[in-house]
Amino acid sequence: MEPGNYTLITEFILLGFSEEAELQPLLFGLFLSMYLVTCTGNLLIILAIITDSHLHTPMYFFLSNLSFADICFTSTTVPKMLMNIQMQSKVITYEDCIAQMFFFMLFVALDNFLLTVMAYDRFVAICHPLHYTVIMNPRFCGLLLLASWVLTLLVSLLHALMVLQLSFCTELEISHFFCDLNQVIQLACSDTFLNILVLYLAIGLLGVIPLTGILFSYTKIVSSILRLSSAAGKYKAFSTCGSHLSVVSLFYGTSVGVYLSPAAIEISSASAVASVMYTVATPMLNPFIYSLRNKDIKQALRKLFS
User: Fold this and answer.
1) Could you give the angle at the alpha carbon of 65 between the alpha carbons of 151 and 256, nearest 5°?
2) CA distance 291 to 285
3) In degrees, to the nearest 5, what angle opens at C-alpha 175 toward C-alphas 278 and 4?
4) CB distance 48 to 300 below 8 Å
5) Buried b (16+ CB within 10 A) or exposed e, 153-175
6) Nearest to 14 by CA among 171, 177, 186, 168
7) What is the rounded CA–CA span in Å between residue 107 and residue 168?
8) Which of 13, 114, 190, 305 has a 20 to 30 Å separation from 253 between CA atoms?
9) Residue 252 pLDDT greater than 80, yes or no
10) pLDDT of 73-84, one tens digit each?
11) pTM score, two decimals?
């Protein structure tokens, strides 16, 4: 590509969902409602855990951080989309696009690691109950959280800095409601081999390895539960990890479904619609899953409201 074909990029165009003007108010109301429910639900989970001393345990410590990550995760994409719908604009500046990519990668990766750490917590609680308080001590829990933050920060920062080195041509339309890293890389005119290589490595580090850890933990958990003699003991053991397993299934099921679906292979508005499942719907449903399936959370919420 000759230098004359490059241009100084100041903004991208987010195509979003629909070109039809009459659908925009409906979309605005729908996503505003989902965003408010997400923030309110996750904030209530955090407040319930903070105010109830019975929930000051490793499992709920990580759950409160997961709720915080979900609020931030959704806040990286939905407010900008709502503003564009309200202003009837599809523009996002170059700087805002880079920032949105960075924070989106940061919080989706943090969600991955927190779900993995929570699976490990359940593994220790069920498979090694006598050593649980020794292994999952406050210092170790803090180190796990710190390691999750540092690793996701470094990987997200690396991707953002590498995108800053790319040059772009005149085709600046993104078939999404947010700046998706993969699609932004595909718009570049300069060589993107290194970006794609690092992207695949990051998928392995931030996606495949955590999922493998979760599957390994639950394999050990199920094996340990099946060895229990009493039915009541089996039910109690399953109930302690049922909410987490539901959230894991929802998060990975929707995200894997998005990226392995035909809509993800062919870049189109259908890809954006599918992405709503894990970027908006999953963080919104998490508080309901934990509050409906967990009697401790329900009791803490009753105390909070009373």
Assistant:
1) 65
2) 10
3) 135
4) yes
5) eebbeebbebbeebebeeebebb
6) 177
7) 26
8) 13
9) yes
10) 999 999 999 998
11) 0.89
Q: Which helix (H) or strand (E) holds 154?
A: helix 138-164
What would the two tokens of residue 17 be?
A: 């969902």
Domain hosting residue 59, numbered range: 3-305
* CA distances, 147 to each of 117, 152, 254, 274 (Å): 11, 8, 26, 31
Q: Which two tokens stand for residue 42?
A: 């996750």
- How far apart are alpha carbons 56 and 53 in whole angstroms? 5
The first and second tokens of residue 303, run together, are: 């105390």
Tokens of 144: 């796990």
DSSP classification of residue 176: S
pLDDT in tens, 88-138: 888 999 999 999 999 999 999 999 999 999 999 999 999 998 999 999 999
284 Cβ partners below 8 Å, 6+ apart? 34, 37, 38, 41, 74
- Count the domains in the chain: 1
